């Protein structure tokens, strides 16, 4: 989210009288808090002394123990398969685990296509949404021993892999060549994973570049290996069709992101070799950022061919992040009184910050509901399913207890002051229109701090869920297809115009709202492809007929030229809307240099085709004669909106009338072309402009 902006003219400020009345309730609660603080102080002192004494024995024990996560016993791991009735995976009395079935044993009820997986029961000590230390993926080492019982070369399948994955269970349709790591269909894939594979089948399908039917590789998010070792020579000690018992080791060093792999067959020794067979540098913290839960697994899969995959042992250790235990103990013993003092200050400040934060936000957002953080955490399954990401926010899909689907938007500016947040919520909660995204609720999680500074924290906004996603994905992304036909596109243009006209003229008797970031990514679509304008992160409430001076903001390609001069008005939104019209009509991104060259912006490109303006239409559109005239009107309107001088552009009331009547506006007689990018580099004005808004 961008910096939250101050509102002008005092129209949106909390009334000092109202705030004074609210603060009257603070006095009795302050007295109660004083007695509460005294009780907490005494209790904290007793607990700190008890904790320091108990820590001596606990730290002595923990200092001498390895941080071993699992040793293949039922207390540490769970066995997982796609078909619960297949008996795969199967653990024997000798602790061997058969991850795939043995084709030499004919069993009618065992399906060929299956996945067998062993997973450590609990997530690894990593939190991509956590604090600075938690977001660094820990160093770890793993060692596992296994054996394949194969038939003739390239007639078995499909292999075994150690993986770190975001999937708690095997994905559906992940059998055979997908090794239980990802789905067969690209559209179904959502997980992130890092894997070490021992592959016994050579695949030639798209997305696979297997060198042979006996190879070892490191994979990230797909099964085209970052680095691979071909072991298909029958004399190779790691030839996977010799039915060797193989031991493999993998280490990850968080300080330099280096991954190293060793492997040997157990015919001579099970000691780790001195030389690694694979080395690659990859930052796992970056791979799993924004994920709260990641899991360690051993997975194997069978397809049309199969082999008996036997797992004998698996060990994994992670680095100890607890620091030096004796230094921690010394601190606990030497400074219990300091701990008590800090706890008391922290408790009081959190109580005070929470009270004032909620007071301001509740005053601003009536009657929009306030959610508790725990409610949103449960609704989003721990903020795991990301459905959108912007420069200043991350959007998660959530399901409320009553079954309502919502979009939960987390603002990434964690230092936003609550009074500034309250003003933005006041703008959004006061807007109700069919073609504007509805705010259903909010949550403010105060940032924990030890001082009594003004409260800052994390802001969460709860919006209605738009099942069809945003317009950008339908124009340029994976959802592009026949659903965005000529009639639908014209309807979307009209819907956005209605929404923007409402913001500009129908908001309040004393002011209107500037959106300041009109673009395809901020146009959301319902199940019936009805458009709703959303994302008011840059919005401001402005007095009527006023031009404001503010920091440049918006998205490249959509921003009006005057914004660089910090002159922002309704006509700035009109310019962005004009770019959006042309983008919807042409299907071209605003900064697609390859398609609009030698021009720098879409408006210039269309103006160069003004004599045959319908040539700018998306070639995939099939239009009737009547629709062609409506598109002619829309493209002429787009040009009028994209003129360089704000005073030459129509207002949104005029825009709406043109669209409703399919009026053909005159093409501007003169046109100021935007200075583009030359062969030697970008011009100074263009460079300054884009550096100001990025």
From TrEMBL:
Signal peptide start and end residues: none
Main subcellular localisation: membrane
Residue numbers binding ATP: 410
Region (Disordered): 675-694
One GO term describing the cellular component: plasma membrane
Top-level taxon of origin: Eukaryota
Stretches assigned to the Protein kinase domain: 381-665
Family indicated by similarity: In the C-terminal section; belongs to the protein kinase superfamily. Ser/Thr protein kinase family.
Protein's recorded name: Protein kinase domain-containing protein
């Amino acid at each position: 989210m961008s910096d939250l902006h101050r509102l002008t003219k005092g129209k949106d400020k909390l009334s000092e009288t109202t705030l004074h009345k609210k603060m009257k309730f603070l006095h009795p609660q302050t007295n109660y808090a004083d007695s509460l603080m005294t009780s907490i102080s005494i209790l904290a002192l007793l607990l700190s002394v008890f904790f320091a004494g108990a820590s001596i024995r606990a730290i002595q024990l923990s200092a001498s123990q390895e941080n071993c996560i699992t040793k293949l016993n039922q207390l540490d791991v769970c066995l997982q398969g796609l078909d619960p009735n297949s008996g795969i995976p199967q653990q024997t009395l000798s602790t061997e685990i058969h991850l795939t079935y043995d084709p030499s044993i004919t069993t009618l009820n065992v399906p060929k296509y299956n996945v067998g997986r062993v997973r450590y029961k609990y997530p690894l000590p990593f939190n991509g949404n956590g604090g600075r230390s938690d977001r660094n993926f820990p160093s770890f080492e793993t060692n596992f021993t296994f054996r394949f019982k194969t038939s003739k070369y390239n007639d078995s399948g499909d292999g075994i892999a150690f993986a770190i994955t975001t999937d708690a269970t095997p994905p559906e349709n992940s059998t055979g060549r997908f090794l239980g790591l990802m789905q067969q269909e690209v559209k179904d894939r959502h997980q992130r994973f890092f894997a070490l594979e021992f592959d016994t089948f050579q695949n030639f399908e798209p997305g696979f570049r297997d060198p042979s039917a006996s190879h070892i590789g490191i994979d990230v998010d797909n099964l085209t290996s970052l680095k691979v070792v071909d072991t298909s020579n029958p004399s190779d000690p790691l030839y996977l069709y010799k039915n060797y018992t193989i031991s493999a080791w993998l280490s990850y060093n968080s300080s330099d992101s280096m991954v190293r792999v060793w492997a040997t067959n157990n015919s001579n020794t099970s000691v780790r070799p001195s030389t690694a067979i694979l080395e690659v540098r990859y930052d796992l913290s970056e791979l799993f950022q924004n994920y709260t839960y990641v899991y360690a697994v051993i997975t194997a899969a069978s397809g049309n061919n199969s082999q008996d995959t036997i797992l004998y042992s698996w060990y994994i250790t992670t680095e100890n992040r607890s620091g030096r235990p004796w230094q921690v103990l010394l601190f606990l013993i030497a400074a219990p009184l300091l701990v008590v003092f800090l706890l008391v200050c922290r408790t009081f400040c959190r109580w005070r910050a929470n009270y004032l934060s909620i007071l301001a936000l509740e005053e601003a957002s009536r009657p929009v509901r306030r959610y508790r953080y725990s409610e949103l955490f449960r609704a989003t399954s721990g903020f795991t399913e990301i459905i959108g990401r912007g420069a200043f926010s991350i959007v998660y899909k959530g399901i409320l207890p009553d079954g309502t689907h919502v979009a939960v938007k987390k603002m990434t500016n964690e230092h936003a002051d609550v009074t500034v947040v309250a003003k933005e919520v006041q703008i959004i909660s006061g807007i109700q229109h069919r073609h504007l995204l509805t705010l259903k609720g909010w949550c403010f999680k105060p940032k924990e701090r030890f001082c009594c500074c003004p409260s800052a924290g994390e802001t969460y906004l709860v919006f209605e869920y738009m099942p069809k996603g945003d317009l950008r994905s339908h124009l340029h992304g994976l959802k592009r297809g026949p659903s965005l036909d000529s009639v639908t596109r014209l309807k979307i243009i009209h819907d956005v115009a209605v929404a923007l006209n409402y913001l500009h003229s129908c908001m309040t008797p004393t002011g209107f709202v500037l959106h300041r970031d009109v673009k395809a990514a901020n146009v959301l679509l319902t199940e019936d492809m009805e458009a709703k304008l959303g994302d008011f992160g840059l919005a401001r409430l402005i007095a009527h007929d006023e031009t404001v001076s503010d920091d440049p903001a918006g998205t490249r390609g959509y921003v009006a030229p005057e914004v660089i001069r910090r002159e922002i008005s309704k006509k700035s939104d009109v310019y962005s809307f004009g770019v959006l019209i042309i983008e919807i009509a042409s299907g071209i991104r605003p900064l697609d240099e390859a398609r609009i060259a030698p021009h720098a912006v879409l408006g210039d490109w269309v103006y160069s085709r003004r004599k045959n303006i319908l040539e700018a239409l998306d070639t995939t559109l099939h239009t009737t004669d009547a629709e062609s005239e409506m598109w002619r009107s829309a493209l002429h309107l787009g040009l009028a909106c994209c003129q360089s001088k704000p005073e030459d552009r129509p207002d949104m009331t005029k825009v709406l009338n043109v669209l409703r009547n399919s009026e053909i506006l005159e093409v501007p007689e003169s046109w100021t072309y935007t200075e583009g990018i030359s062969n030697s580099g970008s011009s100074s004005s263009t460079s300054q402009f884009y550096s100001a808004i990025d």
